[in-house]
Design a protein that fits this description.
The protein has one helix at residues 50-53, and strands at 5-11, 17-21, 29-31, 35-43, 58-62, 68-77, 80-86, 106-111, 116-120. It has 121 residues and is mainly beta. The chain has one domain. The longest helix has 4 residues, at 50-53. The radius of gyration is 13 Å and the shape is globular. The protein starts with a strand and ends with a strand.
C-alpha cells in the first residue's frame, strides 16, 4: 500500500476550517480563512469500509458550524487505488479527490467553499 503524505492545507473559504487526522491528533490544525498551514507530512489513512472510515480518515470541519465538509481517505477498489474525498461520508467506491488522486507521494490540499483539490508537491 502506497503512502500519501499531506504537507500543506490552503483554506480559501470565507470561514476557518479544522484539519483533523482521526488516526493521529499530532497533525490536527485550525486553518483560518485565506491561510496555508503545514500539517506535518500527515499520512492519508486507509479505509476499506464505512466502519473503518470513522477512525481512519482526514476530516475538514467548518469551525463556525462544526459541520464536516470533507472526508478524505485512501482505498483500493475495482476502479483503482486512489485518495478519495466525499462530503457525505463513506461512499463505495468513493470519488477520487480532484487533482492528484494517485497515492504514493506528497500532496497539498486546497479547500474552497464547495470544492477540494489535491496538488502533487
Amino acid at each position: 500500500m502506497a503512502i500519501t503524505g499531506v504537507q500543506n492545507v490552503t483554506n480559501v473559504r470565507g470561514s476557518g476550517v479544522q484539519f483533523i487526522n482521526t488516526e493521529n491528533s499530532g497533525n490536527n490544525r485550525i486553518i483560518s480563512p485565506q491561510q496555508t498551514v503545514n500539517v506535518g507530512n500527515c499520512w492519508v489513512p486507509w479505509a476499506r469500509n464505512e466502519n473503518e472510515l470513522i477512525g481512519h480518515s482526514l476530516l475538514i470541519i467548518d469551525t463556525t458550524t462544526d459541520q464536516v465538509l470533507w472526508y478524505i481517505w485512501q482505498r483500493w477498489a475495482p476502479d483503482g487505488d486512489f485518495v478519495r474525498a466525499s462530503q457525505k461520508g463513506w461512499e463505495d467506491p468513493g470519488t477520487p479527490i480532484p487533482g492528484e488522486s494517485t497515492p504514493g507521494h506528497s500532496i497539498n490540499l486546497w479547500i474552497a467553499e464547495n470544492e477540494i483539490r489535491a496538488d502533487r508537491v
